[in-house]
Write a structure and sequence with these properties.
alpha/beta, Rossmann fold, 5-stranded mixed β-sheet, 17 helices, binds NADPH dihydro-nicotinamide-adenine-dinucleotide phosphate
Length: 448
């Protein structure tokens, strides 16, 4: 979908100038602007209120030094980030990414996406994101703890249960959240729901670990059913083998699908008989190992170096659950050629713009990340509610709420796409529905 609206073309030029050297952020804004063209025509009041100009500028960006001492007694220095993008509908909310590729542009793209995603969940959460170029891979628990404590020592000045509530993301799991929560509590001398994804013994929510992967399958199932199909008997390829990929595999299997492949940043495994998830969990969650170890336990499976090749495996449904821009035009074309009918995104922005064009041009059912993977943050929102109530809900209660939220997200995307004349384009629907709620709140609150 090309950008034709002159007002948005001019504004995008300003965004490009102001954010030079941040291609992921520009990519995210461009996609949203393309979807919002009919909104500009229909809602001159939002143009008048300067909502479009304001929504692309973060309310606040914090960058800081994170010094810590490694196991050899040597001082290491990383860079920390927190981008508080938009608080129109609630406290800033979004994960913390720990990965060597992290820089300001990655955090801004993720924070921008988070505004619309959080809006779609129906819960009162604004958009934010944080992270660091620290790589937890290969570090000892002691090193990870010292990094997390140093990171939180600065971050604690800027967050709070009613202001900004971070969570996990790539590289930030239960261990890291625990260390960060402990340091926050120690510095502030208060026990509050300042982070989500916490352990169950100190305020975490049941189902949070499973939420993004399960939610992805709940959303995808709605999309399939609305188009006369289902997971039953389908072959599924899932990239990544982290939190999202593991629980997407679990739920897809429970719906009767056969998941045949998983990956990490080194390569991918293929098991024609269907992935044995207990083995993957043992490797990834218990031993923190690499996905290639799977073939030691299952000799009939194969391991191939290089993660991109995973998209050459024929499948009915592809669920990218690793990282941004992992499916390019070439991979999208191979998916189409091999008969893939559905791409639904567990990772954030895993498809390049050219890949998305390929899906839409070939009638692939496309579930965009900001809708399809919103189950994680939705359940974080439910964790915040439980913390405020000082009560814990059962797994079944949280799971039922998550399921209901994912259904309502699909409906919101479907309805908005229809209302704005783009039936079946769930990306446009997600962007429009997510935007409108935030835009109304921004307009109502005046020029802030
Ligand atoms: P994890 O750290 O648990 O797992 C990430 C997985 O993706 C690992 O298998 C990792 O492999 C792989 N990966 C990371 N970077 C790359 C890369 N550059 N190329 C290939 N593979 C890579 O993270 P999550 O599962 O939590 O997150 C995965 C995606 O889902 C991210 O895009 C995240 O933003 C998104 N997401 C996560 C949510 C959550 O609740 N956790 C919520 C919503 C979205 P390796 O071990 O080799 O690095």
């Amino acid at each position: 979908m090309a950008l034709k609206n002159q007002y948005l073309i001019d504004l995008l030029e300003t965004v490009k100038k102001r954010n030079a050297g941040e291609p992921e952020f520009i990519q995210a804004v461009t996609e949203v602007f393309e979807s919002l063209q009919p909104v500009v025509d229909k809602r001159p009041d939002l143009v008048e209120a300067g909502v479009f100009e304001r929504i692309v500028e973060p309310e606040r960006q914090i960058m800081f030094r994170v010094p810590w001492v490694d196991d050899n007694g040597k001082v290491q220095v990383n860079r920390g980030f927190r981008v508080q993008f938009n608080s129109a509908i609630g406290p800033y909310k979004g994960g913390i990414r720990l990965h060597p590729s992290v820089y300001l542009g990655i955090i801004k793209f993720l924070g921008f996406e988070q505004i619309f995603k959080n809006s779609l969940t129906t819960l009162p959460m604004g958009g934010g994101k944080g992270g660091s170029d620290f790589d937890p891979k290969g570090k000892s628990d002691g090193e990870v703890m010292r990094f997390c404590q140093s990171f939180m020592t600065e971050l604690s000045k800027h967050i709070g249960a009613d202001c900004d509530v971070p969570a996990g993301d790539i590289g930030t799991g239960g261990r890291e959240i625990g260390y960060m929560f402990g340091q926050y509590k120690r510095l502030r001398n208060e026990f509050t729901g300042v982070l989500t994804g916490k352990g169950l013994t100190y305020g975490g929510s049941l189902t949070r670990t499973e939420a993004t992967g399960y939610g992805l399958c709940y959303f995808t199932n709605e999309m399939l059913q609305a188009n006369g199909s289902s997971f039953e008997g389908k072959t599924v390829v899932i990239s990544g083998s982290g939190n999202v990929a593991i629980y997407a595999t679990e739920k897809a299997q429970s719906y009767g699908a056969k998941v045949v492949a998983l990956s990490d940043s080194n390569g991918y495994i293929y098991d024609a008989d269907g992935i044995k998830l207990d083995i993957v969990k043992e490797i990834k969650e218990v031993k923190r190992g690499r996905i290639k170890e799977y073939v030691d336990a299952v000799p009939t499976a194969t391991y191939t170096e290089g993660c991109k090749g995973i998209w050459t495996i024929p499948c009915d449904i592809a669920l990218p659950c690793a990282t941004q821009n992992e499916i390019d035009k070439e991979s999208a074309e191979i998916l189409v050629k091999n008969g893939c009918k559905v791409v639904s995104e567990g990772a954030n922005m895993p498809s390049t713009p050219e890949a998305i064009e390929t899906y839409l041009a070939n009638g692939i059912l496309y579930g965009p990340a900001k809708a399809a993977n919103a189950g994680g943050v939705a359940t974080s929102g439910l964790e915040m509610s439980q913390n405020s109530e000082r009560l814990s809900w059962t797994f079944e209660e949280v799971d039922a709420k998550l399921h209901g939220i994912m259904k309502s997200i699909f409906k919101a995307c479907d309805d908005a796409a229809k209302e704005y004349g783009m039936e079946g384009n769930y990306m446009a629907g997600a962007n429009i529905a997510g935007f409108l709620k935030v835009a109304e709140a921004m307009k109502a609150q005046g020029c802030v």
